[in-house]
Amino acid sequence: MMLIKTGDKMENYKRFLGKSIFKNTKFIKAVIFITTFAILFLISSIGVIPKKYSLKEGDIAPSDIKAPRDFTDDISTQEKIEKAISSVPDKYSKNIEIKNDAVKKVRDFFEKVNEIKSSEDKDEEKINKLKSASIFNLEDEDYKVIIQLKNEEIENITSFLQNCLSKILSQDIMVNNEEDIKRAKDDFNFYVENSSMQSSLKKICKEIGIPLIKPNLYFDSQQTSELKEEAKKQVQPVIYKKNQNIVLKGEVITSRHIYLMRKAGLLLENKLTDIWLYLGVALTIILMELIISFYLYKYRRNIYYENNKLAIISITLCINALFTIGINTISGYLIPVALNAILMSLIFDSFTAFFISIPSVIVIAFITNFSTEPLLLYIVGSISGILFISNVHERNNILISGVYTGLINGIITLSGNFINNNLEITQIIIQCFASIGGGILSAMLSLGILPVFEQLFDIITPIKLLELSNPNQPLLKRLLFEAPGTYHHSILVGNLAEAAADEIGANSLLARAGAYYHDIGKIKRPYFFKENQITNDNPHDKITPKLSALIITSHVKDGIELAQKYKLPGAIKSLIQQHHGTTLVKYFYVIASNNSNEDITEETFRYEGPRPKSKEASIIMLADSVEAAVRSLNNPTILEVESMVTKVIEDKINDGQLNEADLTLKDIETIKKSFIKVLIGIFHNRIEYPDLNDKAKEGEGTIDRV
Questions:
Q1: Contact 524, 565 (CB under 8 A)
Q2: Which tens digits make up the pLDDT trace of 612-636?
Q3: Above 60 in pLDDT, residue 19?
Q4: DSSP per residue over 387-452, as a string?
Q5: Cα distance between residue 342 and residue 345, in whole Å
Q6: What is the per-residue pLDDT for 521?
Q7: What number of other Cβ atoms are within 10 A of residue 427's Cβ?
Q8: Out of the domains of life, which is the source (predicted)?
Q9: pLDDT tens-digit profile of 466-512?
Q10: Residue 180 contacts by C-beta under 8 Å, 6 or more apart in sequence?
């Protein structure tokens, strides 16, 4: 007994495990998230974390050691700064007050002389007063000579001294410069000695003038500092560019080599630095994934809740990163950065492409070590890829969009070189052509990858839908030649479905393509369907209603088999399977009910379904029935068309065929109006229905076409 219980528990556990983990969409999402993170982290780390070396001074370099990224040589930069600063001469400011003060002191002194001379005092007292008032260190004999001077002589001496001092102190006399001071005093003595004055007056002039000769050029520390700071700013840092040689193979390792390798993170001792780099890469990738996930959850839940679409996004991100790391060794400008944008635009939509491709530029930035110029190119390249691919409806046009994207990339590259004053023509040409090549490469890779995604993940893109809608498709050609009536009916249903889908915001391309293929199962037995019967010979007249209903309903299963054979997308298969839902084949059900004594059940005469799950499937179901019903009318009026369309749609609603579809009452009303608009003026002969008893008359005018 216990064994049975244990077995039951184990079975329940397995069942729980299968449902809650391996079939749990959240678990799959987590696996996709973690796998994407792991791959992108590994690829980004290769770009960010360089190969390490265990070298010391005196060792021989085993190979050329190149810079893994752009980095600044701080020592060389500092040497350039110091050289620039030392080349700036000291700045001096001239103090003109030295001259003005000297001239003023001479004037004041001799004005005092005149004042004292004009007094009534005795000469002795005058000399003492002048001596007391004087700022000059003159001898008593000199004062005596000065007091005895005539006014004219005093005026001449004053003028002479002022002129000499003004002339000498107008020249630069640098502070703490003995040569400048000596030169100035020698010049003054020269002027005095060459004057016509008496020797006693020359002596007085020297004793007055020499002390007034002082330095007038002083060191300006503030202006000097400003000039040196400006010189420092003008120094361009010494930058080792990515792939620039640090050490050549066979060179002896010096202390400078060790410094540069340490700066570039190329030594094994840089492990702690690597940890922080790894952490930074990890956090950034997680942030990128969260941004994309949040956008999908918030605005594109139809993508968020479908794991195959999440897997497509994951694979695209990883593929782009792989191509980036490979092509980056050739040129960062050649990277197919628009690959993400183009694929996401083709598979999903432009907004989704934007919110996936722009954050993914972060990964490319890691791989390229955040080179500023290419980084701008990657962002603009992604945006231009989205813009140029948005209106593409043929695969060949993808390549043309790639060319346009490449041209935009080339212009951005050219602009970047002009802005950075890089006028090296050869380098500019190479970079521009590489940028153009990057856009073209993005398109070429998209052309190769898109069919793989379409086949592997059973997705359907606008381009694929347009291709499927091409009348030259082999299966549509078969339908045309083997079941021409069904083909023309399908074309009309396609027109009805496309117009209605446009009106309610459904996928009109999918609705049209689905309508074209919805009846392909009739190829197997075309003449069992009225639209393909050229003569009045109807094979249903020779078999039972039950068998007829079986043949009629089998066209859905036959259509699925043909769709699989011709590898039609799953979305088209679903439309084929759902386009009749569980509708009753009322024509043969009524005949069987009228002519059989056996109990006839509706289930025997109903399609297997399922009922339409999507707007597009619902539209095709309604368009199929409406087109058949209206064509069966003989020369109907507009009111009769409107009445028939309304009746068909109401019958489908009453039969519960639209219960599982995501349609509102407003949508249904819009679909009805769209059908009526298209059907006006289109009238084709349909099958004539037999007289029915009361049971049949309840559905008169709405019997499903066969």
A1: no
A2: 999 999 999 999 999 999 988 888 8
A3: no
A4: HHHTT--SHHHHHHHHHHHHHHHHHHHHHHHHHTT---HHHHHHHHHHHHHHHHHHHHHHHHHHHH
A5: 5
A6: 95
A7: 11
A8: Bacteria
A9: 999 999 999 999 999 999 999 999 999 999 999 999 999 999 999 99
A10: 172, 173, 174, 215, 217
Give the number of C-alpha atoms closer than 13 A to the C-alpha of residue 197, restricted to the C-beta side. Answer: 27
Helices then strands (H, E): number in the chain?
Answer: 30, 6
Please report the pLDDT score of residue 698 as a whole number. 39
Interatomic CA distance for residues 689 and 702, integer angstroms = 10
Instruction: Report the candidate in 418, 312, 323 with the shortest Cα–Cα distance to residue 367.
Output: 323
Contact between residue 349 and residue 362 where contact means Cβ atoms under 8 Å apart: no
For residue 285, give Cα distances in angstroms to 486, 616, 690. Answer: 53, 38, 70
Q: Which residue has the tokens 């919805």?
A: 518
3-state secondary structure of 92: strand
Which residues in the chain are classed under CATH 1.10.3210? 469-697
d(CA 169, CA 184): 8
CA separation for the pair 33, 37 (Å, rounded): 6
* pLDDT at 695 > cutoff 60: no
Amino acid at 498: E
260 contacts 116 by C-beta, under 8 angstroms: no
For the entire predicted model, the pTM comes to 0.67
- Residue 356 makes CB contacts below 8 A (sequence gap 6+) with 292, 295, 313, 316, 317, 340, 344
pLDDT of residue 17: 40
Cβ atoms 520, 562 nearer than 8 A? yes
CA 29, CA 470: separation in Å to the nearest integer?
36
Answer for the pair 313, 457: CB distance below 8 angstroms, yes or no: no
Rounded to 10 degrees, the C-alpha dihedral 96/97/99/103 comes to 150
Task: Return the pLDDT at 372.
Answer: 56
Indicate if the pLDDT at residue 562 is higher than 50.
yes
Tokens 């390549």 map to which residue? 399
> What is the rounded CA–CA span in Å between residue 416 and residue 422?
8
With helix as H, strand as E and coil as C, how does 362-373 read? HHHHHHCCCCHH
- Angle, helices 123-133/97-117, rounded to nearest 10 degrees: 160
Question: Position 370: which residue type?
Answer: F
Q: Across residues 556-570, what is the average pLDDT?
A: 95
Angle 325-328-334 from CA coordinates, rounded to 5°: 120
Q: Are residues 407 and 439 in contact, defined by beta-carbon separation less than 8 angstroms? A: yes
Find out whether 521 and 477 touch, Cβ atoms under 8 Å. Answer: no
- Report whether 205 contacts 250 (CB < 8 A): no
**Angstrom distance (rounded) from CA 642 to CA 321:** 57
Positive or negative, the CA dihedral 251, 256, 260, 266 is positive
Mean pLDDT of all residues in 63-77: 84
* Domain over 469-697 is classified CATH 3.30.60: no
> Which amino acid is located at 487 in the chain?
Y
Token pair of 15, please?
């069942």
Closest CA to 208 of 195, 192, 190: 192
Helix 665-679 vs helix 638-654: crossing angle, to nearest 10: 150
Annotate 306-374 with three-state secondary structure. CHHHHHHHHHHHHHHHHHHHHHCCCCHHHCCCCHHHHHHHHHCCHHHHHHHHHHHHHHHHHHCCCCHHH
Q: Please report, as a single letter, which amino acid is at residue 355.
A: F
Q: Is the peptide bond before 612 cis (omega within 30 degrees of 0)?
A: no
Cα gap 420→675, rounded to integer Å: 61
For residue 209, the tally of other CB atoms under 10 A from its CB is 23
Considering only residues 157 and 49, tell me which one the structure prediction assigns the higher pLDDT: 157
Residue 21 has pLDDT above 90, yes or no: no
